[in-house]
Design a protein that fits this description.
Mean pLDDT: 95
Order of helices and strands: EEEHHEHEHEEEHHHHEHEHH
Strand order of the largest sheet: 3-2-1-4-5
Number of domains: 2
Structural class: alpha/beta
Radius of gyration: 20 Å
Helix content: 40-55%
CATH topology of the largest domain: Nucleotidyltransferase, domain 5
Largest sheet: 5 strands, mixed
Shape: globular
CATH class of the largest domain: Alpha Beta
Number of strands: 10
Low-confidence stretches: none
Length: 336
């Protein structure tokens, strides 16, 4: 009988310190996440230096908690996977150096993982992949369409040319004096508002699968400023609903068109913005009219966690990929 593969995952790319253990790339044994949201709220966003310091303080505790929850020992762990990029370089360094120290001390193979590959493979923790598949990645730093023809193979067919969707959400939320992180608050307000403001949709060139949300963000800011100058009152709920409608329409339309053009067998959604209820609703409605299965993971697997890094790391490990003890953090690592 084949031995179960147990991979330890470490994730510290931004403001979550996370450690997980995953079996065979599909089953979560333990998934511990220490969030820093409360520390960054007063600044309206993540402060890199503070994030790094928190990772240093929490990494040992989170690691210990993961082993206590799993009741496993180091002898049972087959390899260590860690986010090597992209992300905040200081935050990444904490996880990478912790993983290298553990790999050396415990004599375990080390596997560097791309953060976005992790978000993609969060879906495999709920359902097996069916290739070829299309992945829509929507987060604070990324908005991309990725075609996968097999495990570990990534073909970028569309990406953001400026602001990512999540970044636009946070900036608009700041204009509305909403707390950090802004995305969930915009989503909540949008559900109670009316799509009464005609904000632009950036479709770009014909047949392009790239995205652009900078113009939309500017349009929202200008609308708010102009209304204040004229003494007009705009409801935050209506601004949020109109803004979200613009973002969701573009994301949904381009994903649907790409899925049909590339004749994929499955569409998956990944990244923090995949937790957005408005986006989930529109994507589900659009793909309900097709025969293409749509997979959006549970909300707890949309945000940064280490189970997704262990899941992606399992594939890399099984494919024979290894990282040396010279592994370094790469804040602008490309997905390939």
């Amino acid at each position: 009988m084949k031995k179960n593969t147990l991979i330890l995952g470490i994730e510290t790319s931004c403001d979550e310190t996370a450690v997980a253990i995953v079996k065979d790339g599909t089953e979560i044994i333990t998934n511990v996440v220490a969030s820093q949201i409360e520390s960054h709220k007063r600044f309206g966003g993540v402060v890199p230096e503070i994030a790094s310091r928190h990772h240093v303080e929490q990494i040992t505790q989170v690691l210990q908690e993961a082993f206590e929850e799993s009741e496993l020992t180091w002898d049972e762990i087959d390899a260590i996977s860690v986010t090597e990029g992209p992300g905040l370089v200081g935050a990444l360094l904490v996880g990478v150096n912790a993983a290298k120290a553990l790999a050396f001390a415990k004599q375990k193979p080390l596997v560097g993982v791309h953060h976005i590959a992790g978000h993609i493979y969060a879906n495999r923790l709920e359902r097996e992949f069916n290739f070829p598949l299309l992945a829509l990645i929507v987060s604070g730093g990324h908005t991309e369409l990725v075609l996968m023809k097999e495990h570990g193979s990534y073909e970028l067919i569309g990406e953001t040319r400026d602001d990512a969707a999540g970044e636009a959400y946070d900036k608009v939320a700041r204009m509305l004096n909403l707390p950090y992180p802004g995305g969930p608050h915009i989503d909540r307000l949008a559900a109670a508002g009316l799509e009464s403001i005609d904000f632009p949709r950036a479709w770009l060139e014909e047949n392009s699968y790239d995205f652009s949300f900078s113009g939309l963000k500017s349009a929202v800011i200008n609308k708010i400023h102009n209304a204040k100058q004229r003494g007009e009152e705009l409801k935050n709920e209506d601004i949020a609903a109109s803004f979200q409608a613009s973002v969701v329409e573009v994301l949904t339309a381009k994903t649907l068109r790409a899925a049909k053009e590339y004749n994929v067998s499955q569409v998956i959604v990944a990244g923090g913005v995949a937790a957005n209820k408005g986006l989930r609703k529109e994507l589900e409605a659009a793909f309900r009219e097709t025969e293409i299965p749509l997979l959006i993971p549970d909300i707890k697997l949309c945000t940064d966690n280490a189970a997704m890094i262990a899941a992606a790391g399992t594939i890399a490990f099984e494919q024979g990929r290894r990282s040396g003890l010279d592994l370094n953090a790469n804040a602008s690592l490309l997905l390939k």
